[in-house]
Design brief:
disordered N terminus, about 525 residues, transmembrane, neurotransmitter transport, Amino acid/polyamine transporter I, two-stranded antiparallel sheet, membrane, glycine transmembrane transporter activity, cell projection, mainly alpha
C-alpha cells in the first residue's frame, strides 16, 4: 500500500511538472513556428497545421490513458511534450513504450524534402530582388558575403537545433525544448526565466512587421515603375495596395491564403528564371570591368543587412525540425538548401548586375524593358499582396498571445470574448497595424534601406548573435575548441556587421524621412 501511494504521488508530481512547463513551451512553440512566415514561408502554415493536429492527437491519447487511472486529471491546453524515435521528455504515463506509441500516432510528419522546400521558400523568396543592388555597392566582396552568409546561417541553424537537446541520466540525447523562445528562456534561467523569450519575441515582431512594410513598399514601387505615364504617385499606389490588404485584419486562419501564396511562390521562381534569361541574352554587353574589389564605405554596410535578411530562417527551424519524420536528416537538408541558395543567389545577383552595371536599381525588375516590366511586376505585386497576410497574421498572433492572452501575466484584457470572437477594439488594433505599415511605407519608401535596417537589426541578431551565444551558454562544457572558436568569431563578426549596418541604414532612413517630410 505504501509503495502504491508513493507511486501515485510521484505520478501526480510528474504530471504537474510537465503541465507547468508545457503550458509555456506549448504556447511559445506555436509562436516560434508562426514566425516562420517572416519572409516567404508559404508551407509554414501547412506545417503548423500538422504540428497542431499532431499535438491534439497526442493530447487525446493522453486523456484516454489518464482517464483510466483513478483521480486522473485531464491535461491542460498545450500540455504536450512529444518526442520522436522514443526519446524526449516522458508523458504522464511514464513509460518509454507509451511515448513511442504516442509519437507514432497522429498526422504524418513532413519529409526532409518538404522541410527543405520550406527553408527554400524562406531564404530564396521575393527579397532576392534586392541582391544585385548589394553587388552594386560591394562588388566582389558582396559576392563573397553571399557565400559567407550562407555558410554562417547554415552553421547557426544547426547549433540552434543542438540547443534543443540535452543528455539525460542514461546518457541518451533527448529533446527538452521546442522553440527558439524555449532556448532563450533556458539561457536566462534561473534569474530571469522569461527575459530571453521576451527578447526573441520583440525581435520576431520587429522582423515580421518590417517584412509587412517591405511588401507595401515593393508593391507601390513596382506599380509606379510599371505605369510611369499614369498620374499616380508611388505613395498613392501604396495606399491602394493597403486598401486591398485591409481585410487581413479579419483573418482567422491562413489555409486559403497559403494555397494562393504557394502558387505565387512558384510563379516567383519562374519570374527569376525569366530575368536571368533576359540577362543571358545580353551576355555580350556584360560590364565585367564594373565589378570592383573596392567598396562604397557609406553604402556597403547597408548591403550587408540586405544579404543577411535574405537568409533569415532560424526563427522557425526548431518547429520545422520537430515536424520532420527523421530529424537526423536535418543537417543534410540544411546543407543542400543553403548550397543551392548560395549558388542561385550569387548567380542571380552577379548576372543582373553585369547586365545593368551602375544603373542597377533597388528592385532589379525595374531595370527590365517597359514591354515586359509591367507583366513581370504585376505578378510580383500579386505575390507581395498574397504574401503579406502570412507575416501579418504571425505578428498579430504573437502580440495577442504576449499582451492580451498570457493569463495573469497579460498586460491588457483579453481581446477575445467568451464565445471566441474577436472584440471590436481588438479588430481596431489589427486595422491600426495595417495602417502603421502603410505610414512607414509612405514616409520611408526605400526598399533597400528598410531591408538593410531589418537585416542588420533583427536578422543578424536572430541568425548570428543569439544562436552562437546560446550555443556557448548551454553546451560550452561539451564543445570542442574549434566550435568555441567559430561561435566566438561569428558573435564578434556578426556584432560588428550588425552595428555598422544598423547605423548606416538608420542614417539613410532619417535622411529619407526628412526629405519626404519637406516634400
Amino acid at each position: 500500500m505504501a509503495t502504491l501511494l508513493r507511486s501515485k504521488l510521484s505520478n501526480v508530481a510528474t504530471s504537474v511538472s510537465h503541465k507547468s512547463q508545457a503550458k509555456m513551451s506549448g504556447m511559445f512553440a506555436r509562436m516560434g513556428f508562426q514566425a516562420a512566415t517572416d519572409e516567404e514561408a508559404v508551407g509554414f502554415a501547412h506545417c503548423d497545421d500538422l504540428d497542431m493536429e499532431h499535438r491534439q492527437g497526442l493530447q487525446m491519447d493522453i486523456l484516454k490513458s489518464e482517464g483510466s487511472e483513478e483521480g486522473g486529471e485531464p491535461p491542460l491546453e498545450g500540455d504536450i511534450h512529444y518526442q520522436r524515435d522514443g526519446t524526449g521528455p516522458l508523458p504522464p504515463s511514464g513509460s518509454k513504450e507509451a511515448c513511442s506509441e504516442l509519437s507514432g500516432q497522429g498526422k504524418p510528419k513532413i519529409t526532409a524534402w518538404e522541410a527543405g522546400w520550406n527553408v527554400t521558400n524562406a531564404i530564396q523568396g521575393m527579397f532576392v530582388l534586392g541582391l544585385p543592388y548589394a553587388i552594386l555597392h560591394g562588388g566582389y566582396l558582396g559576392l563573397f558575403l553571399i557565400i559567407f552568409a550562407a555558410v554562417v546561417c547554415c552553421y547557426t541553424g544547426k547549433i540552434l537545433i543542438a540547443c534543443l537537446y540535452e543528455e539525460n541520466e542514461d546518457g541518451e540525447v533527448v529533446r527538452v525544448r521546442d522553440s527558439y523562445v524555449d532556448i532563450a528562456n533556458a539561457c536566462c534561467a534561473p534569474r530571469f526565466p522569461t527575459l530571453g523569450g521576451r527578447i526573441v519575441n520583440v525581435a520576431q515582431i520587429i522582423e515580421l512587421v518590417m517584412t509587412c512594410i517591405l511588401y507595401v513598399v515593393v508593391s507601390g514601387n513596382l506599380m509606379y515603375n510599371s505605369f510611369p505615364n499614369l498620374p499616380v504617385s508611388q505613395k498613392s499606389w501604396s495606399i491602394i495596395a493597403t486598401a486591398v490588404l485591409l481585410p487581413c485584419a479579419f483573418l482567422k486562419n491562413l489555409k486559403a491564403v497559403s494555397k494562393f501564396s504557394l502558387l505565387c511562390t512558384l510563379a516567383h521562381f519562374v519570374i527569376n528564371i525569366l530575368v536571368i534569361a533576359y540577362c543571358l541574352s545580353r551576355a555580350r554587353d556584360w560590364a565585367w570591368d564594373k565589378v570592383k574589389f573596392y567598396i562604397d564605405v557609406k553604402k556597403f554596410p547597408i548591403s550587408i543587412g540586405i544579404i543577411v535578411f535574405s537568409y533569415t530562417s532560424q526563427i522557425f527551424l526548431p518547429s520545422l525540425e520537430g515536424n520532420m519524420q527523421n530529424p537526423k536528416e536535418f543537417h543534410c537538408m540544411m546543407n543542400w538548401t543553403h548550397i543551392a541558395a548560395c549558388i542561385l543567389k550569387g548567380l542571380f545577383a552577379l548576372v543582373a548586375y553585369l547586365t545593368w552595371a551602375d544603373e542597377t536599381k533597388e528592385v532589379i525588375t525595374d531595370n527590365l524593358p517597359s514591354t515586359i516590366r509591367a507583366v513581370v511586376n504585376i505578378f510580383l505585386v500579386a505575390k507581395a499582396l498574397l504574401s503579406y497576410p502570412l507575416p501579418f497574421f504571425a505578428a498579430v498572433e504573437v502580440l495577442e498571445r504576449s499582451l492580451f492572452q498570457d493569463g495573469n501575466r497579460a498586460f491588457f484584457p483579453n481581446c477575445y470574448g467568451g464565445d471566441g470572437r474577436l472584440k471590436s477594439w481588438g479588430l481596431t488594433l489589427r486595422c491600426a497595424l495595417v495602417v502603421f505599415t502603410l505610414l512607414m511605407a509612405i514616409y520611408v519608401p526605400h526598399f533597400a534601406l528598410l531591408m538593410g535596417l531589418t537585416g542588420s537589426l533583427t536578422g543578424a541578431g536572430l541568425c548570428f548573435l543569439l544562436p552562437s551565444l546560446f550555443h556557448l551558454k548551454l553546451l560550452w562544457r561539451k564543445l570542442l575548441w574549434h566550435h568555441v572558436f567559430f561561435d566566438v568569431a561569428i558573435f564578434v563578426i556578426g556584432g560588428i556587421c550588425s552595428i555598422s549596418g544598423f547605423i548606416h541604414s538608420l542614417e539613410g532612413l532619417i535622411e529619407a524621412f526628412r526629405t519626404n517630410a519637406e516634400d
